[in-house]
Design the sequence.
C-alpha cells in the first residue's frame, strides 16, 4: 500500500506512524465534526498522517437493543461532510456485500471487521471497488493467516491493502496483543495496531462490552516501539455516554498528550 495515494492524506512524508481515529459510531453530524476538528488540529501540529474513522452502522452487537446507527445514508453523508470540511480521508467498516458499493461512494477506505475477515465474497466486493482496504485480523486468527486475506484483495488487482491487529481472544472475556505478530504481518502488508479494541473485555453477562482504557498508552507505546505502521484509536469527548464501545474509547481530552508521547518515541526509534 502506498500511503501517499490515499485521497487527501497529509504529512505522508513525515516518517511518523499514520492514525485512524474517531468515534466508534457516527451518532450525529455535530459530534462527528467536533471530534474531527480536534483530531485534525492535533495531527497537523504533530505531522501525523490522519484518516477519520466512524462506523456508519454497527452490525456486530451483543444485544438486539444495542445502538446500530442513525441510518445508513445519513451517517455516510456525515462522513462525506467530515471529509469535505477538513480535507481528510475517511474510513468506515462494512458488513454485507451490498455495503461495499454503497460506502465506497462516500469514503476513501473500506474496513472489514475482524469477525468477517474470512468472508471471501465480502472481501472481494470491497476490493473490487478500488478503494483502500483495511483488513482487521480476526481475534481467532494467527498473524500468518492474514496473508491469505491480503491475497484475496491483491488477486482483485487492488494493491491498496493494510491489516490491523486488534488482539487475540484469551479465554472468554479478554484480549491479548501478541507483538510478535507485527513483524510477521508487516512482511506482506502495512500493519496497524488497533489500540482501543485490543482493550475490550467482551462477552460480559450484561451484554455490554467492558474495557481497560487505562491501558491505552501502554499498548500504543509498545506498538510504536515495535515499528507498527499505523495506530487505530477510537476517541470521544464523552466516552461514558457514547452509544457504542464507550468502555474502551479514549477521552478526546487525552489524545494530544498521548500522541505527543508516541511521536517522541517514534523519533527515537527512527534513529536506532
Sequence:
Amino acid at each position: 500500500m502506498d500511503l501517499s495515494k490515499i485521497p487527501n492524506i497529509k504529512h505522508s512524508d513525515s516518517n511518523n506512524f499514520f492514525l485512524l481515529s474517531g468515534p466508534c459510531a457516527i451518532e450525529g453530524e455535530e459530534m462527528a465534526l467536533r471530534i474531527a476538528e480536534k483530531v485534525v488540529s492535533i495531527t497537523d501540529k504533530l505531522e501525523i498522517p490522519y484518516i477519520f474513522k466512524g462506523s456508519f452502522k454497527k452490525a456486530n452487537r451483543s444485544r438486539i437493543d444495542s445502538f446500530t446507527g442513525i441510518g445508513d445514508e445519513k451517517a455516510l453523508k456525515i462522513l462525506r461532510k467530515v471529509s469535505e470540511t477538513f480535507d481528510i480521508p475517511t474510513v468506515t467498516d462494512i458488513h454485507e456485500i451490498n455495503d461495499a458499493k454503497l460506502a465506497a461512494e462516500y469514503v476513501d477506505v473500506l474496513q472489514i471487521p475482524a469477525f468477517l475477515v474470512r468472508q471471501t465474497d465480502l472481501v472481494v466486493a470491497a476490493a473490487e471497488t478500488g478503494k483502500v482496504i483495511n483488513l482487521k485480523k480476526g481475534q481467532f486468527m494467527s498473524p500468518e493467516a492474514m496473508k491469505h486475506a491480503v491475497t484475496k484483495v491483491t488477486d482483485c488487482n487492488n494493491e491498496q491493502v493494510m491489516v490491523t491487529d486488534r488482539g487475540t481472544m484469551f479465554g472468554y472475556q479478554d484480549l491479548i496483543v501478541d507483538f510478535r505478530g507485527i513483524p510477521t504481518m508487516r512482511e506482506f502488508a502495512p500493519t496497524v495496531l488497533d489500540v482501543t479494541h485490543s482493550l475490550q473485555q467482551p462477552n460480559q453477562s450484561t451484554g455490554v462490552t467492558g474495557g481497560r482504557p487505562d491501558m491505552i498508552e501502554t499498548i500504543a507505546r509498545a506498538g510504536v516501539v515495535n515499528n507498527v505502521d499505523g495506530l487505530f484509536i477510537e476517541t470521544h469527548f464523552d466516552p461514558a455516554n457514547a452509544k457504542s464501545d464507550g468502555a474502551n474509547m479514549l477521552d478526546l481530552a487525552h489524545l494530544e498528550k498521548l500522541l505527543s508521547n508516541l511521536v517522541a518515541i517514534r523519533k527515537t526509534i527512527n534513529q536506532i
